[in-house]
Design a protein that fits this description.
253 residues; alpha+beta; eight-stranded antiparallel β-sheet; four-stranded antiparallel β-sheet; 3 helices; 14 strands; elongated
């Protein structure tokens, strides 16, 4: 029986090293070698659109709140019709107003003030009130006083009385000279009364924060008593200006 010789699957070397045949690169391979790696970019248009939408909705919400606050303030204003209180100097009596040669001032004045709350539904609550009396022309302090706190009810008229005093108040030479000249005037000395405090307003169940109120009264003519008898100042031409700003939502009165 004869042996069959099968051809070897290994390539014949014949003493030489076999090499793989090389083929030219395809167009796809050449294109892929130079093509940059793809990296997805963020959608800037979409981000800008979201930002604009947020800004728009925020503006709409703020505008709506402002409109609602204005409507609420208008309703409160129509319902309550707030008005400032009024003040009148109803009397001023000078017991003593002495200025020494060394510009020391001693004062004793009785001051009467009438205040009225014209509102039907507003109640004013006042802190203690500081009072100062000065000369109208040169603003020289003559004396000061204090009124206790009080509640001013609706449609109420309240009479206030205060003692204005100063004991040995030292004035500078210039102020002393001017006050001496005013006290010797035949027409009397023009005085100014100023009140200052804080007040809050109650409207039903609503209470406002405390606000500063200032009252300035001018047109008061006073003469100095020559003896022990007190003299009454002329207050017929006195007028008081009230400076009060209370905010109720968007309304100020």
């Amino acid at each position: 029986m004869t042996d069959r010789v099968h051809p070897s699957t290994k390539p014949a070397t014949n003493g030489t090293t076999a090499t793989n045949p090389s083929f030219p690169a395809t167009k796809a391979q050449l294109y892929g070698a130079t093509r940059p790696v793809y990296r997805p970019q963020p959608n800037r248009k979409r981000s800008r659109g979201c930002f604009c939408s947020c800004v728009l909705w925020t503006a709409v919400v703020i505008f709506t709140l402002i409109v609602l606050a204005a409507i609420a303030g208008a309703i409160i204003y129509v319902l309550y019709r707030p008005h400032r209180p009024t003040f009148v100097v109803s009397g001023l009596k000078i017991s003593s107003l002495n200025l020494t040669s060394t510009s020391h001032l001693t004062t004793n004045i009785d001051l009467n003030i009438t205040t009225r709350n014209p509102n039907k539904k507003l109640v004013y609550t006042y802190n203690p009130i500081t009072i100062s009396v000065t000369t109208e022309k040169d603003d020289i302090l003559v004396g000061s006083g204090l009124l206790p706190s009080f509640v001013h009810g609706t449609k109420n008229t309240t009479f206030l009385r205060a003692a204005i005093t100063s004991t040995g108040l030292q004035l500078d030479d210039k102020s002393g000279s001017k006050l001496t000249s005013d006290l010797k005037s035949k027409d009397g000395v023009a005085l100014k009364v100023e009140l200052e405090t804080k007040v809050k307003v109650k409207m039903g169940g609503l209470k406002t924060p405390k606000a500063r109120i200032r009252v300035s009264c001018q047109g008061i003519k006073a003469t100095v008593p020559s003896g022990k008898q007190a003299t009454k100042a002329s207050v017929s031409n006195a007028k008081c200006k009230v400076d009060l700003r209370i905010k109720i939502w968007k309304w100020t009165f």
